Amino acid sequence: MRAVLRAPNGTVDYDLADDISQDVWVHLVSDGARRLLAYDPERGLSLESYVAIVAEREAISRLRRITAQKRGGHLTAVEIDDLNAASAEPSPEEHLAEQQVATDLGRHLEGALPERGRLVWRYTFHDGRDPTEAARILGVEVQVIYNWQFKIRRLARNFLEQVKAAG
What we know:
- The chain is mainly alpha-helical.
- The chain has two domains: 2-70, no CATH class; 86-166, Arc Repressor Mutant, subunit A (Orthogonal Bundle).
- Helix content is 75%, strand content 0%.
- It has helices at residues 2-5, 14-37, 47-70, 80-86, 92-112, 115-126, 131-138, 142-166.
- Helix 7 crosses helix 8 (142-166).
- The longest helix is centred in the C-terminal third of the chain and has 25 residues, at 142-166.
- The radius of gyration is 23 Å and the shape is elongated.
């Protein structure tokens, strides 16, 4: 919050402060909690002070990135030819082939998954519900949904690799 309060525009954005707070937690536990495990009490800091330093650095970095985006600093130069190639619409044949692969993938997952897995697939991937909502509907812990999502992604990845190898 200190870093947000010192932001150059002088206004307090509480939503931004919440976002940064979440980013700090992710930063602390990412890479197997590498930053959190780097805490060494023999260096003379309390755990709270160590986390506060990491939090302030992460918050300042996030605020700098936001400021750079507002100034256009996140944009990169692109050659016109690259832009035209990247924005080209797929041909009707390519579009039809993509639709067929998606349909085949759906059929494969429907056939390969047990009932619970099919429900998780429908709720989270097909209907776009978040894992918490799917867990509530199915009456299970959210971790169960995450586990199913991992299995579904693995099945889908294997299927798409087979399609790629065949085609």
